[in-house]
Give the backbone structure.
Amino acid sequence: MIESLPGAAYDNKIYAKFSKNTIEKKLQNKEEFCEEFSLTCDKRQMLIGVVSELSTDNGANLLQDILPGIAALNICLAVRGVGTERFQKIVGDFAQENPGKVAIVGDGNDALRKIFAASDVSFFFNSGVENENLAKSALAYAALPIAPVSMNHLIEDYNPNQESGNGFVFEDENMWSAFAALVRSNENFKFPYDWKTIQKSSLGN
């Protein structure tokens, strides 16, 4: 069971604490994470956190399905390295095929804190008690959740016209819908001012 995490403003175990008023310090977490784990990702490339246990129950089949799309978008992955042997091998093979683009981080709260603090978004392929708890923590570190509509009581889909929302929702738990939400998040990520608005929304009041 994942313990409750303190949030970016109060966490002494991340590279740099940050809040709505100091959101620019989140980039420092990303830069130092990439240096520690030998990622070539820079500030213009999105870093995706995958923190759910890699298992069929947690939707890891969907992760497997969209890995080619992640490679095509030239974005980076930070993966919590816990799950079934099959999916750990799939992620490990993907890391070997895409050097400098994938960090496989150990299990435990310290690893989770670093992933959340560094990641621009976090991907949740289905709902469930543990995934919802992890999504709450993702919001507290401005690792904007990409999540199924079944989490819409936690995640408000970003609306660029109203500049409202704290994440990106997909309607159907299949590769096309999930990948479309990822593409949409990546497109919004290209606009730093708008992205900061979403980050601040995720951190709440």
